[in-house]
Amino acid sequence: MDSIIISATEDTPGIRLDAASDIFEISGRSLPEDVTKFYKPILDWLEEYASSPNDKTVFNFKLSYFNTASSKIILDILMKLEAVKDISIKWHYASDDEDMMEAGEEYADIVDVPIELVEY
Description:
With 120 residues, this protein is of the alpha/beta class. The protein contains 3 helices and 6 strands; from the N terminus they run E-E-E-H-E-H-E-H-E. The protein has a single domain (4-119), classed as Transcription Regulator spoIIAA, CATH 3.30.750. A 6-stranded mixed beta sheet has the order 1-2-3-4-5-6, with helices on one face. Helix 1 (35-51) runs parallel beside helix 2 (68-81). The longest helix has 17 residues, at 35-51. The chain is globular, with a radius of gyration of 13 Å. The termini are far apart.
């Protein structure tokens, strides 16, 4: 399965979905002009990955900011990850970023996947 590697910009997050290297990460700021268009390949990749995942998957969210439209897509991503066997999700947030910590807690309450909050 091909990897998806997208460099971060001021408005879009860095994406690294690389099953061969066991690296699954979304980082940076997420406020793309067209959220659906930006995230569609990621959602499609995750759906394919869920059908034949690695033995263990650790998915890292290292977002510093996301807009309302992105918040819905992040939930869609988390719901796709529910189908992955033996998954753990790490939600990274800055120690002074209460909003991002609370976002991780809210997602943890919604989805049926363990989400570990990681303060840095």
